[in-house]
Amino acid sequence: MPPPVPSIWTARFELVSMSLPFMQALVRHDLAAAERAIGAIVPADMPDDLAGFLGYRIPTVTADPGSIAWLGRAIVLDDAAGRRIIGSAGFHAPPDADGRVEIGYRVETAHRRQGVASEVAAALLDWARREHGIRHFRASTSPDNAASQVIIGALGFRQVGTQMDEVDGLELVFELDDAPPSFETLAVHAGAEPDELTGAVAPPIYQTSTFRQDGVGRPRRGYEYARSQNPTRDRLERAVAALEDGRHGFAFASGSAATAAIAELAGPGDEIIVGDDVYGGTYRYLERVRKPGAGISTLFVDLAGGMDGLWEGLSERTRLVWFETPTNPLLKVVDIAAVAATLARREAEGGRRPLMVVDNTFASPAIQRPLTLGADIVFHSATKYLAGHSDTVLGVAVTSDDAVAERLRFLQNSMGAVPGPLDCFLVLRGLRTLHLRVERHGTNAAAVAEFLRGRPDVASVRYPGFGGMVSFLPAPDSSRSAAERAVAIAEGTRWFTLAESLGGVESLIEIPAAMTHMSVAGSALAVDPALVRLSVGIEGVDDLIADLRQALDRA
Fold first, then answer.
1. Segment among 197-206, 441-450, 524-533 with least mean pLDDT
2. 279, 283, 285, 385: the active-site residue
3. What is the pLDDT of residues 13-40, one digit of tens each?
4. How far apart are CA 233 and CA 82, in angstroms?
5. Dihedral sign from CA coordinates of 291, 296, 297, 298
6. Choosing from 78, 270, 277, 359, which is the catalytic residue?
């Protein structure tokens, strides 16, 4: 049995680089060797102020040989620099009631060694797992400490909230769980942590445009202007990032604004390969705004039919591979992992690997998480399933690529198409029931699709087998064409509201060719004018089927 976790283990370890003998002893939990290594390099006349900062003067071994209480915060020295103190490491709080321990570190600017810090931190985490069975870790750092955030992220930590430290003020809080919570639990709690100031279970909405600064050019906790940052938006961005299993989230004023920002990643001379069935607004922006304005080119490819078209279309000019799955409005399904494998093959053969961009609006992270399948960027019109109540317009993008994140953050701030705090709150509230709503959407949609397939006056039904979207083509009759019947059906329902959009709790019906996809008319992506698209809500399914039955009968 490993020794019990000492009361000193955990909450903050501060480090940059260690003398190799001390580091090796620490990882081995060899107290005697660690003491010898420390004794060989700690100056006996350490100044009191520095000793206080580091948490102790000279370490002493406790009577319990299995304890590391002597460690406190170990001095970190650089062998090459003699006795220069460049950081510290240690553990000084027990695990909480859930067995979670908190870690943190300090990097002295003049001696920052990110690679070494990451290696030492990883070794300490491994030691905690191996020797004490610790499976849950926390880390905290200042919002201004970008280096710490990079290292914490590299270790696999995910931001879960903020906290008020009595000395350091507001800190970002990160967690690493070897046994992560279920998606359902994450949906309820991500971004919805109790308020760090008052403990309010429902965090406040920061309905403000600007923030008081502590001095000229010294914004408090990094907040200076709400276009750049807002606490409510921060919560939404990290919540969606957590649900998509990504590291960086970015909220925009609409899904189209997110599209515009992501499209900026392709520059003059670049090419974007796009799935051949996409939202009309995406086609309109790429073809009529980005393409002529930036000198890019687009190539539309059927990605649902296999990877041959993608492989043949890839070139050194390809910067982005962009697709929806399921697609809008034909509900074709693209194999995300197969696309990733094709791009990896391209890179392995010496070609340029483009970024893979997946529009996950129709599925939501409750069904699929594209980043885990090889995507570089996933984005949503959060107006739809994420918010789920047809009461806000908002877009969000997520990535785990630090370079892409840096560029998107710049574009988000520079382009200025950001959502207001109230809109962010509405999406945050919607996320807490996402898993429940998506389950009901799917159950109802499957029943609706089955009903439609049984109708002799329905020519074809498109339903991917999951999610809440169904599309169908009515058959013509002796007096009306299929397109005329489609209009009559859309105008003849009671519970299905004739409206654009989708993903809300209420059911919607529309004719894409005349509504959401007018911009693709006359192109290779033109939609059959008889296609009817349903967004199946969470009402009683018998009522929905009865509504469609009467509309079909009358059409």
1. 197-206
2. 279
3. 333 233 445 545 544 555 556 555 544 4
4. 47
5. negative
6. 359
